[in-house]
Specification:
Elements: E1 6-10, E2 17-21, E3 31-32, E4 39-40, H1 49-53, H2 59-62, H3 86-103, E5 106-110, E6 113-119, H4 124-138, E7 143-149, E8 152-158, H5 165-173, E9 181-184, E10 187-189, H6 198-210, H7 213-216, H8 223-239, H9 245-252, H10 256-268, E11 272-274, E12 281-284, E13 287-288, E14 295-298, E15 301-305, H11 308-318, E16 322-327, E17 334-340, E18 345-350, E19 355-359, H12 366-369, E20 375-377, H13 380-389, E21 396-400, H14 401-412
Length: 419
C-alpha cells in the first residue's frame, strides 16, 4: 500500500484549511494555523495533528504501524517533528557542536532555515557529508545540503516539509538570532515571501544577521504598543505629518497615559523618534515629520520618508499607489519613481539608470545613523564618486531599484496588516 502524503488540515478555531505534505517517518505534533495563528496539537489518543484535524491520517497510521515514530512518547527535549529519541538527539547536537568547535564554524539564520559556514579544511567535507547522511536517514521534515565554494564550505538546513517550528527550535539551540519578528497573529516582519531577487534576499539577510535589533525591536509588541504604532503610521499617511500623543489617543481611543507609555516603549525599541519633550512623534519608520529629501505621495497626502528603502515600501504598507520625489545624493538631479498594484510594482523610474545605496552604517537610532546614507543616485558613476568623497570606505550595498523595492515591501508591507 502506498500512503497518501497530502492532507487538508482544518483549524478547529477559525475553520481555515491548508493542504500540507506529511512526513513519512516523523510526527508533526504541533501546527500553527495560517489563518488565526492558533497552535494546534493532537487530540487525546491521536499521535499527530494530521490524525486529529486532517482529511487523511498520517502515513504510519495509514500503513497500520502504530509502533512507528507516531508511538514515541512526545517530549520537549527534541524538536516537535524530530523522530530521534532524547538521548540520540542530544548526541546529534554534540556532533554539531564538535564540528563547529573543531573547524571554526559559524551558524547563521536564513529565511529558509539555518546554515553552518566553515573555511575549507582537510577532512571537513567528509565530516559534513556524514552528518548530512545521518540527518537524511532520520528527518523527513528538514532538508540538508553540503555546498562547497572557493575556500569555504557550508552545511545548509532547510525547512523541507516543516512548518518552520523545528527550524526555529534548531536556531535557538544553535544560538542563532531569528530573521523575522512576529508582529501579530499570522503577520511577520520582514515578509520573506516578497523577496524573490537573489541580491535583495542576500542583502536583507546579511543586514538582519549583523544587527539583530532590526528583528528583536519589532518582536513581542504588547497590545498598547501595537495599537499606538499603527495609529501613528495611519496618522502620518492620512495627514502628511507626525502626530502628538493627544492625536494618537484620539485616533485609537486609548487613554492619554496609556499612549504616552506605549510611545516611550516604542522609542526604546527604536520604532519611533519623539521630540525633546516626548509629546510628539518626529519619525516612525517609514515616515518623518521633517525634511529628508524623499517625498512620497500617498493618496491625497504627501509625506517625507526616512530613506529610499522606506519610501519604496510605503505603498505596500498603505496598500496604495505612490509617487516618490527624491534626488541624486551626488549631483541633486531629480529622481522620480511611481508604483502601482498597491505599491508592489514599478511603473516609472526616472532616470532609468537610477540606483540605491543601502548603507550598513548603524549606531543606535537607525533614523539618525543608517537612514541619512541610504539614498538614490542617478547613475553608478555618481555613486562611485559619492563613496570616494566620504573619505573612509562606507559599508553598504548598491541595489537596482527593483531590488530595493522588494526589500521595502518585505520590511514595511506587514506593518499595518491584520493577521
Amino acid at each position: 500500500m502506498t500512503p497518501i502524503l497530502e492532507s487538508t488540515l482544518t483549524c478547529p478555531d477559525c475553520g481555515m484549511q491548508a493542504v500540507e505534505t506529511m512526513p513519512t517517518d516523523a510526527c508533526l505534533y504541533f501546527y500553527t494555523c495560517i489563518g488565526c495563528g492558533s497552535r494546534l496539537k493532537p487530540k487525546h489518543g491521536d499521535c499527530c495533528v494530521f490524525c486529529s484535524y486532517g482529511s487523511v491520517p498520517c502515513p504510519p497510521i495509514q500503513m497500520g504501524d502504530r509502533n512507528a515514530c507516531c508511538a514515541a512518547e512526545q517530549t520537549t527535549a527534541v524538536p516537535e517533528v524530530c523522530s530521534l529519541q532524547p538521548g540520540a538527539f542530544h548526541e546529534r547536537m554534540v556532533d554539531v557542536a564538535a564540528l563547529r568547535q573543531a573547524y571554526g564554524g559559524v551558524a547563521e539564520r536564513t529565511p529558509d532555515g539555518v546554515v553552518l559556514r566553515f573555511k575549507m579544511a582537510e577532512g571537513l567535507r567528509a565530516a559534513l557529508d556524514a552528518l548530512a547522511e545521518k540527518e537524511h536517514s532520520c528527518c523527513a521534515a528538514l532538508e540538508f545540503t553540503v555546498t562547497a565554494e572557493a575556500g569555504s564550505i557550508s552545511f545548509q538546513i532547510g525547512r523541507g516539509t516543516s512548518d518552520g517550528t523545528v527550524v526555529e527550535d534548531l536556531a535557538v539551540r544553535l544560538g542563532v538570532a531569528p530573521l523575522s519578528a512576529k508582529l501579530r497573529a499570522g503577520v511577520h516582519r520582514p515578509d520573506w515571501s516578497k523577496v524573490t531577487l537573489p541580491k535583495a534576499r542576500e542583502v536583507l539577510q546579511r543586514r538582519l544577521a549583523a544587527h539583530s535589533s532590526g528583528v528583536s525591536g519589532w518582536a513581542g509588541l504588547d497590545e498598547a504598543e501595537d495599537k499606538a504604532l499603527t495609529a501613528v503610521l495611519r496618522y502620518f499617511a492620512n495627514h502628511g505629518r507626525g502626530p502628538s500623543i493627544a492625536d494618537v489617543a484620539g485616533t485609537n481611543g486609548q487613554p492619554f497615559d496609556t499612549v504616552r507609555r506605549a510611545l516611550e516603549c516604542l522609542r526604546a525599541r527604536d520604532l519611533v523618534v519623539l521630540d525633546e519633550s516626548g509629546a510628539s512623534v518626529l519619525a516612525a519608520y517609514p515616515f518623518a515629520a521633517y525634511t529628508t529629501g524623499h517625498r512620497v505621495r500617498v493618496g491625497s497626502q504627501t509625506v517625507d520618508s526616512l530613506c529610499t528603502i522606506d519610501a519604496l515600501g510605503t505603498g505596500a504598507m498603505c496598500e496604495t499607489t505612490t509617487e516618490i520625489s527624491s534626488a541624486c545624493a551626488h549631483c541633486a538631479k531629480p529622481i522620480h519613481i511611481a508604483t502601482s498594484n498597491g505599491g508592489a510594482a514599478l511603473v516609472v523610474v526616472e532616470p532609468a539608470t537610477a540606483v540605491v545605496w543601502y548603507t550598513l552604517t548603524f549606531a543606535g537610532c537607525v533614523a539618525q545613523s543608517r537612514c541619512p546614507s541610504t539614498v538614490f543616485f542617478c547613475q553608478d558613476d555618481h555613486l562611485t564618486a559619492w563613496r570616494a568623497s566620504q573619505g573612509a570606505q562606507i559599508a553598504g550595498d548598491r541595489l537596482i531599484v527593483e531590488e530595493a523595492l522588494e526589500i521595502g515591501i518585505a520590511l514595511f508591507g506587514p506593518l499595518l496588516r491584520v493577521g
